[in-house]
């Protein structure tokens, strides 16, 4: 049986060794004779797992003690609300850098709670090629409550290769790129990411927040679970955390460290995405509408010049065990997601298939 490669945008592929280990430990975890799903989050065994996962994540991303690391529920979308609910007060304005569907959703949610300056950061040229504009040209807020941006726009396939400058706290949605490239944590005040793309299964959200930022947050009138400071003080266990997702994330962190950490993932991300972009760019059979400098290493939307072939492409790809390539419903076409769990061989198999398809249909 040949291997299936999974290019789903999210929930996405998980590393095979992680899945095998989870399978092996499913009914008897840590020698307890029961599953990790079936034990108290306050038990000694689970606490050790939780602490180790946090330590490993800190190690992988070089996160210092000035940050709290939280393992929460509610998805990235809850953070869209929770951030402005605690930080956007006293008549201040927040900056939202907009370059795609997710950054727009984050801004729209924030606007329900306070004043928002939506900054359109995309230029579309006469050929329909989209690029990020220079932050010098943005209409900035003088003293923002914070600046929010989306490091990697999952649907459009657009990436900030440089962190935007700001004179307020900087907040990043890294749902689809966390752990795929090294970060300079000094630049950030809060980073959040839904787990289901590059961390583990759906149901958990990681928040990395500078403790100093707590001083600017207001939690009165909010549900207690939205209180970042209380979550930090209670080890993300104000209530029952998503224990199984946290466990699987811990296996992913182990696997990442064995693979050579984030530096290795970054090298692989460059390699895998370059293979696909090279294939797209070699002629006009396939197209990708993002300027080279702003292209994502994780999510690559692409289109057939002859759109009527898209259906056939997707059916034949599925038959070749290349799954999850259907484009987002808002864009159509195709999209390949190359998260950490997708091996280099997956990208190679896809590119081979794309070239064969082109030869037969070009
Ligand atoms: C998937 C995604 C989201 C939405 O995540 P949920 O956990 O479903 O709320 C938000 N932002 C980005 C960049 C994403 O890729």
TrEMBL record:
<dbReference type="GO" id="GO:0004648">
    <property type="term" value="F:O-phospho-L-serine:2-oxoglutarate aminotransferase activity"/>
</dbReference>
<dbReference type="InterPro" id="IPR000192">
    <property type="entry name" value="Aminotrans_V_dom"/>
</dbReference>
<dbReference type="InterPro" id="IPR015422">
    <property type="entry name" value="PyrdxlP-dep_Trfase_small"/>
</dbReference>
<comment type="function">
    <text>Catalyzes the reversible conversion of 3-phosphohydroxypyruvate to phosphoserine and of 3-hydroxy-2-oxo-4-phosphonooxybutanoate to phosphohydroxythreonine.</text>
</comment>
<feature type="binding site">
    <location>
        <position position="173"/>
    </location>
    <ligand>
        <name>pyridoxal 5'-phosphate</name>
    </ligand>
</feature>
<keyword id="KW-0663">Pyridoxal phosphate</keyword>
<dbReference type="GO" id="GO:0006564">
    <property type="term" value="P:L-serine biosynthetic process"/>
</dbReference>
<comment type="similarity">
    <text>Belongs to the class-V pyridoxal-phosphate-dependent aminotransferase family. SerC subfamily.</text>
</comment>
<keyword id="KW-0808">Transferase</keyword>
<keyword id="KW-0028">Amino-acid biosynthesis</keyword>
<keyword id="KW-0664">Pyridoxine biosynthesis</keyword>
<protein>
    <recommendedName>
        <fullName>Phosphoserine aminotransferase</fullName>
        <ecNumber>2.6.1.52</ecNumber>
    </recommendedName>
</protein>
<comment type="subunit">
    <text>Homodimer.</text>
</comment>
<keyword id="KW-0032">Aminotransferase</keyword>
<feature type="binding site">
    <location>
        <begin position="239"/>
        <end position="240"/>
    </location>
    <ligand>
        <name>pyridoxal 5'-phosphate</name>
    </ligand>
</feature>
<dbReference type="Pfam" id="PF00266">
    <property type="entry name" value="Aminotran_5"/>
</dbReference>
<dbReference type="InterPro" id="IPR020578">
    <property type="entry name" value="Aminotrans_V_PyrdxlP_BS"/>
</dbReference>
<keyword id="KW-0963">Cytoplasm</keyword>
<feature type="binding site">
    <location>
        <position position="196"/>
    </location>
    <ligand>
        <name>pyridoxal 5'-phosphate</name>
    </ligand>
</feature>
<dbReference type="InterPro" id="IPR015424">
    <property type="entry name" value="PyrdxlP-dep_Trfase"/>
</dbReference>
<comment type="pathway">
    <text>Cofactor biosynthesis; pyridoxine 5'-phosphate biosynthesis; pyridoxine 5'-phosphate from D-erythrose 4-phosphate: step 3/5.</text>
</comment>
<feature type="binding site">
    <location>
        <position position="102"/>
    </location>
    <ligand>
        <name>pyridoxal 5'-phosphate</name>
    </ligand>
</feature>
<feature type="binding site">
    <location>
        <position position="42"/>
    </location>
    <ligand>
        <name>L-glutamate</name>
    </ligand>
</feature>
<dbReference type="InterPro" id="IPR022278">
    <property type="entry name" value="Pser_aminoTfrase"/>
</dbReference>
<feature type="binding site">
    <location>
        <position position="154"/>
    </location>
    <ligand>
        <name>pyridoxal 5'-phosphate</name>
    </ligand>
</feature>
<feature type="binding site">
    <location>
        <begin position="76"/>
        <end position="77"/>
    </location>
    <ligand>
        <name>pyridoxal 5'-phosphate</name>
    </ligand>
</feature>
<dbReference type="GO" id="GO:0005737">
    <property type="term" value="C:cytoplasm"/>
</dbReference>
<feature type="modified residue" description="N6-(pyridoxal phosphate)lysine">
    <location>
        <position position="197"/>
    </location>
</feature>
<keyword id="KW-0718">Serine biosynthesis</keyword>
<feature type="domain" description="Aminotransferase class V">
    <location>
        <begin position="5"/>
        <end position="350"/>
    </location>
</feature>
<dbReference type="GO" id="GO:0008615">
    <property type="term" value="P:pyridoxine biosynthetic process"/>
</dbReference>
<comment type="pathway">
    <text>Amino-acid biosynthesis; L-serine biosynthesis; L-serine from 3-phospho-D-glycerate: step 2/3.</text>
</comment>
<dbReference type="InterPro" id="IPR015421">
    <property type="entry name" value="PyrdxlP-dep_Trfase_major"/>
</dbReference>
<dbReference type="GO" id="GO:0030170">
    <property type="term" value="F:pyridoxal phosphate binding"/>
</dbReference>
């Amino acid at each position: 049986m040949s291997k299936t490669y999974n290019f789903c945008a999210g929930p996405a592929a998980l590393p095979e060794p992680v899945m095998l280990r989870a399978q092996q430990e499913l009914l008897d975890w840590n020698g307890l004779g029961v599953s990790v799903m079936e034990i108290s989050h306050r038990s000694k065994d689970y606490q050790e797992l939780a602490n180790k996962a946090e330590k490993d994540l800190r190690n992988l991303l070089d996160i210092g003690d000035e940050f709290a690391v939280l393992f929460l529920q509610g998805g990235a979308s809850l953070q869209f609300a929770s951030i402005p609910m605690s930080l956007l007060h006293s008549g201040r304005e927040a900056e939202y850098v907009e370059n795609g569907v997710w950054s727009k959703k984050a801004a729209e949610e924030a606007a329900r709670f306070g004043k928002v300056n939506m900054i359109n950061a995309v230029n579309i040229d006469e050929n329909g090629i989209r690029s990020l504009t220079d932050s010098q040209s943005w209409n900035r807020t003088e003293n923002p409550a914070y600046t929010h941006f989306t490091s990697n726009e999952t649907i459009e396939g657009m990436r900030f290769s440089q962190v935007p400058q700001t004179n307020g706290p900087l907040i990043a949605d890294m749902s689809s790129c966390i752990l795929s490239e090294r970060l300079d944590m000094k630049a950030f005040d809060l980073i959040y990411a839904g787990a289901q793309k590059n961390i583990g299964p759906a149901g958990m959200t990681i928040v990395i927040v500078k403790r100093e930022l707590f001083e600017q947050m207001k939690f009165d009138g909010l549900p207690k679970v939205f209180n970042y400071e209380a979550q930090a003080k209670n080890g993300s266990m104000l209530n029952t955390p998503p224990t199984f997702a946290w466990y699987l994330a811990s296996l992913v962190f182990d696997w990442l460290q064995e693979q050579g950490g984030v530096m290795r993932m970054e090298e692989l991300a460059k390699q895998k995405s370059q293979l696909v972009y090279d294939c797209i760019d070699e002629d006009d059979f396939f197209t990708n509408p993002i300027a080279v400098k702003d292209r994502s290493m994780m999510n690559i939307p692409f289109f057939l010049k002859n759109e009527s072939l898209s259906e056939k492409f997707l059916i034949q790809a599925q038959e070749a065990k290349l799954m999850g390539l259907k484009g987002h419903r808002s864009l159509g076409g195709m999209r390949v997601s190359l998260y950490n769990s997708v091996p280099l061989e997956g990208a190679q198999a896809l590119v081979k298939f794309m070239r064969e398809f082109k030869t037969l249909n070009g």
